[in-house]
Amino acid sequence: MSDVLNVEVRENMGTAATRKLRDAGSIPAVVYGHGGENQHVSVCRKEVELLMRHHSKHVQLAGAASDHVLVKDVQWDPLGIEVLHMDLVRVSLTEKVTVTIAVKLHGVAIGLNHHGVMNEILHSVDILVPAIKIPEHVELNINDLDVGQSKTAADIELPEGATLVTDPTAVVVQMNAPAGDKGTDAEAEGTSEPEVIGAKNEDE
């Protein structure tokens, strides 16, 4: 189920009007795409904050507009705390769209029991998915991830109807050996007897 944003038409533009709008607890946004005209609207800040917490991509508009939209771009303040502006692009519920989705690791890697060091390399992937079925995140099971192994984008569990756009060979997470562990080769080298300086050669 998509989140709902109640929007109102913005009558006044410009810096002063935008500042006044934000002071009143609203955020400016623009709705565009699908052959329709650009529509300048305002959204309640509390609704936007809830939307951000849900990591929602697909949104149903209500009030001054009734479109289904995707959150295309979000402009934040310099501290990354408050949303300053949003771009909302219209979509049809029957079309597929390419979106960037967060990857959530699921389970406890067996390599951690072997003192491995887990390194998460890729935190999100691009998928092609029906607009009405955009997930909040996708999951990657790491229960069987052992030292010296890795998981790629191809191992991610995708929702029904979704296709991976990111390179399937891209490494998402890997389990490295503990720092200072040089492996069995180094151990084998360590078992050889040290050379005694000045020792007499038996052939002499």
Automatic annotation (TrEMBL):
Has keyword Transit peptide? no
Can you name one GO molecular function term for this protein? 5S rRNA binding
Q: Per the database record, which ranges form the Large ribosomal subunit protein bL25 beta domain?
A: 96-178
Q: Is Signal a UniProt keyword of this protein?
A: no
Give me the segments passing through the membrane: none
The annotated region (Disordered) lies at 178-204
Question: What are the alphabetically sorted keywords of the record?
Answer: Ribonucleoprotein, Ribosomal protein, RNA-binding, rRNA-binding
| Annotated GO biological process | translation
The residues covered by the Large ribosomal subunit protein bL25 L25 domain are 5-88
What does the UniProt record say this protein does? Answer: This is one of the proteins that binds to the 5S RNA in the ribosome where it forms part of the central protuberance.
Matches recorded under PANTHER family: RIBOSOMAL PROTEIN L25/GLN-TRNA SYNTHETASE, ANTI-CODON-BINDING DOMAIN-CONTAINING PROTEIN, RIBOSOMAL PROTEIN L25_GLN-TRNA SYNTHETASE, ANTI-CODON-BINDING DOMAIN-CONTAINING PROTEIN
User: What do we know about how this protein assembles, alone or with others?
Assistant: Part of the 50S ribosomal subunit; part of the 5S rRNA/L5/L18/L25 subcomplex. Contacts the 5S rRNA. Binds to the 5S rRNA independently of L5 and L18.
Could you say which protein family the record assigns here?
Belongs to the bacterial ribosomal protein bL25 family. CTC subfamily.
The record's annotation in NCBIfam families points to: bL25_bact_ctc
Protein name (record): Large ribosomal subunit protein bL25
Source species of the chain:
Rosistilla carotiformis
Give the encoding gene's name: rplY
